[in-house]
Automatic annotation (TrEMBL):
Residues 1-15 are annotated as: Disordered. Residues 26-320 form the NAD(P)-binding domain. This is UDP-glucuronate decarboxylase. CDD domains: UGD_SDR_e (cd05230). The gene is LOC110688456. It holds the Pfam family GDP_Man_Dehyd. Its cofactor is NAD(+). Its EC number is 4.1.1.35. It is an enzyme of class 4 (lyase). It catalyses: UDP-alpha-D-glucuronate + H(+) = UDP-alpha-D-xylose + CO2. One of its GO terms (cellular component) is cytoplasm.
Length: 335
């Protein structure tokens, strides 16, 4: 009869997606460093249901310990190079090893993860009509000839070098995102992430900030790879997560640089870690790896103007927060 309200659905259906305004969010690579902090932030909103898909190559269940068993949280062991059939509203696609020693360990797998993994997540986004965000990287700029790097710079990348599985892999992933957007109308967001640091980084993953802090706490020399004048710009993970969520929720496809423009040479970074954490430690020079970019600093004009985002945590504020986490995990109390 017209004018009468339909009866409420039977109780099992009331919990289904069709009767809720909840947002179901997939995070691939959610057991990793940035992914697990993103999970923490998204779980704070009671309207979000979070599903993590991860193969635990560089991530760990430990990073998600506090959410396991939570009714709005689900963790699935799955490799994104295989198809995935689930129903979601948003996809944060992070799955990919990020540290050079891990992505170079099995380069063919790294490129499969970037290409087939991104293709599968785009196929999923297309089937269910989800918005998808890719965490691309400043490595798409290669060894940049333009400084700082704006999103309009096309990069200077070696297509056959030992880093290519990662940087060319991410470049193809970006291409796939834009082709699915143009050809199939998928809602996409592309973030170009610059070096990020913070609690929960793998202690022995070989990246410079985690190396220096672990070395300082173990009274081992800080290994500056030659020449030491190469630069990076380091973003604290809470700022990064904030930027990624703003990009996902905003109206702009990107690509958008998300990073902290504070630029440091590796020697300056070593001096800072020494001063803040262990003034007695030595700084030594060691051999570098091939194709190491000489300078890197984001131009974040777009993020400021389009997302209203800029980083808040300075390097000298973020390093002690990471030190605290590394002390706990390494069992080295503060003297
Ligand atoms: P991470 O290694 O801690 O996390 C990556 C996660 O992806 C891990 O949990 C890993 O187990 C998972 N994974 C890898 N291959 C997978 C596969 N085939 N299937 C399913 N899961 C898989 O790295 P992170 O620092 O958290 O980086 C997250 C994302 O951000 C990556 O896409 C990375 O390329 C990008 N990024 C990070 C940085 C940085 O400085 N941390 C810089 C630029 C871009
Ligand atoms: N795919 C997936 N989950 C889905 C839908 C698709 O993993 O829910 C995979 C699918 O197996 C394919 C890829 O995504 O390998 C691309 O899918 P699309 O439909 O765009 O292309 P096609 O299947 O026509 O090649
Ligand atoms: N690096 C260093 N000592 C280390 C590890 C790295 O001096 O123990 C240097 C490395 O040569 C590079 C920079 O730090 O110039 C950043 O390296 P990382 O692997 O952290 O990130 P990416 O090269 O991907 O920016």
């Amino acid at each position: 009869q017209s004018g009468t309200k339909p009866p409420p659905p039977p109780s099992p259906l009331r919990n289904s997606k069709f009767f809720q305004s909840n947002m179901r969010i997939l995070i691939t690579g959610g057991a990793g460093f940035i992914g697990s902090h993103l999970v923490d932030r998204l779980m704070e909103n009671e309207k979000n249901e979070v599903i993590v898909v991860d193969n635990y190559f560089t991530g760990s269940k430990d990073n998600l310990r506090k959410w396991i068993g939570h009714p709005r949280f689900e963790l699935i062991r799955h490799d994104v190079t295989e198809p995935l059939l689930i129903e979601v509203d948003q996809i944060y696609h992070l799955a990919c090893p990020a540290s050079p020693i891990f992505y170079k360990h099995n380069p063919v797998k790294t490129i499969k993860t970037n290409v087939m993994g991104t293709l599968n997540m785009l196929g999923l986004a297309k089937r269910v009509g989800a918005r998808i965000l890719l965490t691309s990287t400043s490595e798409v700029y290669g060894d940049p000839l333009v400084h700082p790097q704006p999103e309009t710079y096309w990069g200077n990348v070696n297509p056959i070098g030992v880093r290519s599985c990662y940087d060319e892999g991410k470049r193809v992933a970006e291409t796939l995102m834009f082709d699915y957007h143009r050809q199939h109308g998928i809602e996409i967001r592309v973030a170009r992430i610059f070096n990020t640091y913070g609690p929960r980084m793998n202690i022995d993953d070989g990246r410079v900030v985690s190396n220096f802090i672990a070395q300082a706490l173990r009274d081992e020399p800080l290994t500056v790879q030659a020449p030491g004048t190469q630069t990076r710009s380091f973003c604290f993970v809470s700022d990064m997560v904030d930027g990624l969520i703003r990009l996902m929720e905003g109206e702009h496809t990107g690509p958008i640089n998300i990073g902290n423009p504070g630029e440091f040479t590796m020697l300056e970074l070593a001096e800072t870690v020494k001063e803040l954490i262990n003034p007695d430690v030595k700084i030594i020079s060691v051999e570098n790896t091939p194709d190491d970019p000489r300078q890197r600093k984001p131009d974040i004009t777009s993020a400021k103007e389009l997302l209203g985002w800029e980083p808040k945590v300075k390097l000298r504020e973020g390093l002690p927060l990471m030190e605290e986490d590394f002390r706990l995990r390494l069992g080295v109390p503060k003297k």
